[in-house]
Write a structure and sequence with these properties.
Number of domains of chain A: 1
CATH topology of chain A: Multidrug-efflux Transporter Regulator, Chain: A, Domain 2
Largest sheet of chain A: 2 strands, antiparallel
CATH class of chain A: Mainly Alpha
Radius of gyration of chain A: 24 Å
Shape of chain A: elongated
Distance between the termini of chain A: 34 Å
Strand content of chain A: under 5%
Strand order of the largest sheet of chain A: 1-2
Number of helices of chain A: 5
Oligomer: homodimer
Helix content of chain A: 55-70%
Number of strands of chain A: 2
Chain lengths: ~140, ~140
DNA sequence: GTAAACGTTGACGCGGGCGTCAAGGCCAGT
DNA sequence: ACTGGCCTTGACGCCCGCGTCAACGTTTAC
């Protein structure tokens, strides 16, 4: 199977596939004309990669799983190295969730305090206007 | 006060200060020789910026707070635009925490299952070895 | 006088995971 | 033969918050 078909079946871009190959994550056999040649097993590997990526794993973190599958094991997480990644990720997640929860609490407290003070300063009058300049846009990273 | 002193007192780099200026976040007066000239008020603004950054706010998100302070308000969050940022960030945090909690649960379940299966496959024998290749490094982003 | 320590602007690098464009090769249908 | 659709490699762009180096001017201490 050629790259376009694999990409279509796996639901990712050909660019991503070439990227994985450049990382040595998903090397491809080559046909006589130089075209990449994939098989059904590669589709499985891609499934593993995508699943882990949905969990927020980096590509390098998927490597043990992929290698494990290629080594003939029934599942990507049949190998100790994969389990180690799971454990490390769990620890990272716990740390991250805890930090975010702390931040959430602090921001929440700040908001409550600021709202109280605004109320105190302006019991019934007009709210203080300070949007004189082009105030910020938006983002949304901490995924 | 020149850029080096402000950087030292605020605990950040001169490069960061120049960066903030390039964003229009912390413009600086200029001395006759072209040197940036800061005052105590700028130190306060930097304090606000750093606090928010520690919360994981992007620089653009700090802009309303900084402008609010510069407008003469007692606190950076005395202005409605700042409160809006607080609220938006809270929503983002909630969303993010929830996603991470879900992922944590799923990864945890996968780990438990994989450990069980490994145990079943190898009741007393040697564990399957598959770390034949240089398996992964590490990262730790979702901050 | 001169060297060290500060200041200036400009520009590239990084990390992650690709998107996107460029310039070309290979193959199928008509 | 030619068009269109696949494929190839290479290289730059993006986002964000700076780090780091270059090449140069200014001030300060001796």
């Amino acid at each position: 199977m050629r790259i376009g078909e694999l990409a279509g079946r796996a639901g990712i871009s050909t660019r991503a596939l070439r990227h994985y190959e450049s990382l040595g994550l998903l090397p491809a056999r080559r046909a006589g004309n130089g075209y990449r040649d994939y098989d059904e097993a590669d589709l499985r590997l891609l499934g593993q990669i995508r699943t882990l990526q949905d969990f927020g794993f980096g590509l390098e973190d998927t490597r043990p799983f992929v290698e494990c599958l290629r080594a003939g094991h029934p599942a990507g997480d049949s190998c100790p190295a994969s389990l180690e990644v799971y454990r490390r990720k769990l620890a990272e997640l716990d740390e991250c969730i805890e930090r975010l929860a702390q931040v959430r609490a602090e921001v929440s407290a700040q908001l409550a305090r600021a709202e109280l003070e605004a109320e105190a300063d302006v019991p019934g009058g007009p709210p203080p206007r300070c949007e004189l300049s082009p105030c910020g846009t938006e983002d949304g990273r901490p995924a």
